[in-house]
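Now for my pick.
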Amino acid sequence: MRRKSQHFAGARRYNSSMSFAQELEVHILHEKRKKREHKGTKSVKGGDNMAQDKFQKVLEQLSGLSGFEGAAVISEEGLVMASHFIKDQPEDVVAALIQETVNMAQQVIEQAKWGILDNLVIETEDDHKLILYRTKFGYVALLGNKNLNLGLARVTVDEAAEELEKS
């Protein structure tokens, strides 16, 4: 029997008989529809030129790290506000997966009564890394390979998140 957990932004479960991949696809379509409905707001790519310039500056700073594979600024709702990936990545899928990761981590933190998620680091056995830092806009996410220095990357992402807080 499938575990009855909450998935994706808005803690919405679409259909318990769907596979995770099917749920993700439905979620992405739902988010795309939301983007079209809220065109011109700050949480959607291209909504605010000053914020967009700030996001791009931060992503360029992160892209200078050795081992960089990609970075994104993702809203609390799981929408991509800005992104830069070396390889062609479906940014909506990446954002949805990151949002799911944040939701699961936040559930653990809430159950333990530890407060609110501030940052999260995931490292795989083949040494790929995902680093997330919370900002007032949502999250700054950095993806890296085995050549990414975790300590330097954390400091750089933290500085990038602080830079976004100033805007």
